[in-house]
Amino acid sequence: MHARNKATTVNNPTTGERTSERELVFARTIHGPARLVFEAWAKPELFQRWWAPKSMGMTIPSCEIDVRVGGGYRLLMRHAAFEQPMAFFGRYLELTPNARIVWTNDESPDGPVSTVALEETAGATRVVLRDLYPSKEALDAAIASGSPCGITAETFNQLEELVAALRSNRKC
Amino acid sequence: MVPYTAPRLSASFGALSDPTRRGVLEHLGRADASISELADKFHMTLTGMKKHVGVLELAGLVTTQKVGRVRTCRLHPRGLAEEAAWIEKQRQLWDARFDALNDVVAHLHGKEKADARKK
């Protein structure tokens, strides 16, 4: 049950596809009950252990998440390819404990609304992540920018302000 | 829609390994063509050309559309390769995230079970 094995990963790949002009969908089955997957998503000290995977050369120097409707999140992510850390922030729009979280991605003016849905079957949880962009043009532009997470110059422009805010109120 | 996964990218390399198929792509780069036109052009049987076009289609390099009895082949719209590569990058990020999430959940689950045994 503990360490994942290679065979499981091979038989249980992460899928990723563009399902419409405006939407991307990524999905994977996680071994464990939905309430624990939800907990790992909703508690900052757990969230930052997986959101910026070490295997991708990423770290989260700071993370504030307040998972409730109307609550916000602010993350700084560091990657070897970027001189400065990248800022990500937004608001939580919907919340159904152990089942569903919806949030905005406000670091880009045309960022998607992300929805994660959890569905538990026989002790495993199907995790489906949907990124719905405001328009076909917004998704095409994110693709054309070539950046890994739809990061734009905007991200860097707002960085200073964000860093100052985080310094004065660092929680995790 | 077909998921953009690594096997699909290697399928396009396989598709490009054949000189006839590279010729077909070059030809379609200039103009759309029916399967029978391509068969004539490359001195092949209709069945042989259908197979080649099938491989190119599977690799996401060519699309075909049947109107009446004629199947027209055209290159996939430009930019599709970039789109596939971008989505693949995103998918790899999510794959790594889900691996790490799986570990966190396994850890929580293990701790929960151990705590239950203590009680």
Can you put this structure into words, describing what you see?
The complex is a heterodimer of chains A (172) and B (119). Chain A has one domain: Alpha-D-Glucose-1,6-Bisphosphate, Chain A, domain 4 (2-Layer Sandwich). By secondary structure, chain A is of the alpha+beta class. Chain A is globular and about 40 Å long. Helix content of chain A is 26%, strand content 37%. Chain A has an 8-stranded antiparallel β-sheet, sandwiched between helices. Chain A is built from 6 helices and 8 strands. The longest helix of chain B is centred in the last third of the chain and has 39 residues. Chain B contains 5 helices and 3 strands. In chain B, helix 3 packs across helix 4. Helices cover 69% and strands 12% of the residues of chain B. Chain B has a 3-stranded antiparallel β-sheet. Chain B has 2 domains: 70 residues, Orthogonal Bundle (Arc Repressor Mutant, subunit A); 43 residues. Chain B is mainly α and 119 residues long. The termini of chain B are far apart. The N terminus of chain B is likely disordered. At the A-B interface, strand 1, strand 2, helix 2, strand 8 and helix 4 of A face helix 5 of B.
